[in-house]
Amino acid sequence: MNKTEKLSPEEATSIAKTVSAEPNDDMAKINLIMYPLGTVGRDFLYNLFNSFLLTYILFTKTLTEAQFASVSVIIIVARIFDAFNDPVMGGIVENTRTKFGKFKPWMLIGAILTAGVVIATFSTSLQGWSFIAFLAVMYFLFSITFTMNDISYWGMLPSLSRNEHTRNKLTSFAQIFAAAGGGIAGIAIPVFTAGSLAIGGSSVKAYAVIAVAAAVLMVGFQLFTVFGVKEKPLPPDLAKEPAMKLKDMFKVLFKNDQLMWCALIMLIFNIATNVVGGGLSMSYIYFEFGYNGILITVFGVFYAVTSTAFTLFYPWMAKRLGRDKLIAITSLCNIIGYAVMLIAGLVLPHDPWLLKFGVMAFCYGVVGFGQGFYMIMVISIANTVEYNEWKTGKRDEGLIFSLRPFTAKMGSAIMQFIVMLVYLAVGVTAFTNGISDLENAASRGDITDEAKIEGIKEILSGVPEGKKIALLVCMCVIPASGLLIAWTLYRKKCFLNENRHAEIVRLIAERKEAEKGVKHTEKEDLQSEIPYDTAD
To answer: Cα(355)–Cα(369) distance, rounded to whole angstroms?
Structure first.
């Protein structure tokens, strides 16, 4: 394939189907159900811990600025540790040899241990520095246990199929179920932890109950994948291969240039977009429109509906447009959505508040469609497995896919640092501490729910307009700027689209036939047929 020759998305899909057809169609159909089901509970639990932990702390714990800064430092350090632990865990998965495969044992162990950590974290009554110390231990435990599950779950995906079309469907279905789990958490948690519908009458009791529910959901849904997914048997000679050394793991990662660029782009994307769900949007909505979890839910529903719609129609859109055009569309949706949201927040009057809130929620829906950017990058990372096999002769799925959670966790750490700076600059704890005191008083029965609600209204009425605007600007400008950078890097550095991937799959198949003696084409001749260091 020369530099000027191009395949249409349909032709690329046809080639991929021809050279990597599924050997067992029934197995593929079962996996399309059982594999995605596993992530429903995972993403519910992860959304609770990743997106609502800081909110739980702000509105149930009374913190000095030093204690709040300590919480942020713990989260940042733990997430950085977690991120660098991902490639190590990926290597451990690659070196695992059991009759249950290399993915499922870690998947189940990680799910059970994580469930216990989450229940403990959201059920403690500790306050002050005692809580800070407890949080440090729990957060690092979560980093270890969830990584066991996360690396093995997503590392399994590229091993289930080489077929581009099947992989697109697997990824699409997994993202749909992940969005469902995370979406249910995003809808239910605010409603039942803040305002008149809080479980047990306070956020303190509500979060404890939801943590137990999240633990049960994670383990329960992971059992579908552990016992339902049918894997291809490991090659018989795999057990004879020596365990991969740590330095060799990092060599594999750094030599895969497309993997490195995809990882950097996902890192920027995660930093940029997570500041919104990581606390800024919730604080802004509570300060601007009132302490009512239903508002957070409605705001999130617009996002969830459009992001789910993208996921549902992704295979159809990818077949007709290709990933390069789709990622341009999703990037523009993100940038335009945040830009209009900022304008609406600054220009529209507070009264009637419903108009302003409605327009901003609609804009967040536009951003939700743009979340398809992430899904495209997940598929791009999956395709670097074949790229790695073409260049080195080895697939290393678990190790390569460890970069996906690595970027998520490293991005989350940097995001947390940004959110901490914004909160400290705005002085958020001056208002959240008062709300936390009222929530704890209601939990102990010292005050009625009505008195708690009235007290919170009085606190929020004293938030200066300038602080609200500062939160709004940060939650719109930061993600829009980050998306622009990520999209630019993709256009300039990523060339592993459908055309290139289909051709690489064909070359791998030809090489294997040659090694069997069917063809005698030299390895170097096969590699020279397709350039891998220039884009179309």
So the answer is: 22
**Residues 375, 518 within the same domain:** no
Compute φ and ψ for 126, nearest 5 degrees: -65, 150
Tally the residues of the chain: 536
Same domain, 460 and 513: no
Together in a domain, 412 and 534: no
pTM for the whole thing? 0.69
CATH number at residue 458: 1.20.1250
Examine the domain organization and report whether 74 and 164 are in the same domain: yes
CB 441 within 8 A of CB 455: no
Q: Is residue 416 part of a domain?
A: yes
The pLDDT-based confidence of 2 (bands split at 50, 70, 90) is: very low
Q: What angle do CA 63, 65, 69 make, to 5 degrees?
A: 95
The reported pLDDT for the residue numbered 350 is 83
Q: Are 32 and 177 in contact (CB under 8 A)?
A: no
* Rounded Cα–Cα distance for residues 168 and 321 (Å): 14
> What CA–CA distance (Å, rounded) separates 405 from 85?
10
* Distance of alpha carbon 418 from alpha carbon 431, whole angstroms: 19
Residue 98, domain member (yes or no): yes
Write down the pLDDT at residue 482. Answer: 93
Residue 395 domain-assigned? yes
In this model, does residue 479 exceed pLDDT 50? yes
Q: Tens digit of pLDDT for each residue in 220-258?
A: 999 998 888 876 655 554 444 555 565 666 677 778 889
Residue 247's Cβ-count burial label (10 Å; 0-12, 13-18, 19+) is exposed
In a domain, 432, yes or no: yes
> How many other C-beta atoms lie within 10 A of the C-beta of residue 374?
17
pLDDT score of 21 more than 90: no
Same structural domain, 529 and 447:
no
E strands, 165-247, where?
A: none
Q: How far apart are CA 277 and CA 171, in angstroms?
A: 23
Domain of residue 379, residue span: 37-229+244-250+277-494
User: Distance from CA of residue 349 to its chain's centroid?
Assistant: 35
Q: Please give the full DSSP string across 281-348, using - where no structure is assigned.
A: HHHHHHHHH-S-HHHHHHHHHHHHHHHHHHHHHHHHHHHHH-HHHHHHHHHHHHHHHHHHHHHHHHHS
Amino acid (1-letter code) at residue 292: N
Report the alpha-carbon distance of residue 105 to residue 93 in Å, rounded: 9
Terminal CA-CA length for the chain: 12
Shared domain for 404 and 504, answered yes or no, is no
Alpha carbons 34 and 448: distance in angstroms, whole number:
46
Query: Reduced to 3 states, what is the DSSP secondary structure of residue 534?
Result: coil
Q: Which two tokens stand for residue 143?
A: 């980093």
